[in-house]
């Protein structure tokens, strides 16, 4: 029998057993995942983290006392992921993310996350691991840990406006994975779902944590800038199956363990231990292939490097040091015209293309006139 583990299947089974499903549950009722958080509302409040009104034990659905439909109400928004919830930090009013971690299932997650949030590493620009503000256990639940992190968004939401914006994203991701590997940590699940961006400057008035296209009150669109106007930092999240190795272990091997990306060549029909760092190289390369090369126009310049990163033989993939060096060469070879060109979705029809190209050119002319760089750069 293969020893290969499918993490998604395990988690899905555990969540089904613990929290069930929200299918067919009326909006005025909490699903089992939400009940878990509501039952800890007071304890989290005492720790300084206030959950949204929906999870208060005294909650009364707002649509019951108004003329609104539940779909238009802030408290009608149900959690997307049962392990993660948003809260307001009462000390300063900042909205943060809380993650429930079962220490028995993921014994290394908190330690690795805190390692990269340590004083020695947190301030280093190349560090793109999600910051962790605090980790604590719940009363009477020694195996349950709550990790406090900033509120983030998926890395490709909102859409990229220009090639230059995407190039800066690639640079940060390569830099971040190189940083992790330099510190002997293999992420082991750094696919697109586990890449996020800091929306602080991009969305100055923030957004609703669940209905992310809406503002905080769910009564209008969440207004935002482009990444060219407000550069963003990208982060890797979810260290549930990550591992940290001693520097003396120069050639670690791990039994295959499935993350979110099911395309890893060395995991197919094999349970032989393999190099987790080479698998990371595949993951990040495959994320760029799937989200850009296959879905957008204009990224042909990335094809040769990505092809090397995702080749079947992990021994032939470049190390992240080499990938970073090669990407730097590619970036320096791109013209200003290329960098300022629009990111075009392959599914756009002619009407969409005309409308979006027109608005893009208006922005582009303004950016050039004001001397705004084609590749956004984070403030130093």
UniProtKB/TrEMBL annotation:
One of its GO terms (biological process) is mitotic DNA damage checkpoint signaling. Signal peptide: none annotated. Residues 70-380 form the Protein kinase domain. InterPro entries: Kinase-like_dom_sf (IPR011009), Prot_kinase_dom (IPR000719). One of its GO terms (cellular component) is nucleus. It comes from the Eukaryota. Keywords: Kinase, Transferase. GO terms for molecular function: ATP binding; protein serine/threonine kinase activity. It holds the Pfam family Pkinase. This is Kinase-like domain-containing protein. It comes from Boletus edulis BED1.
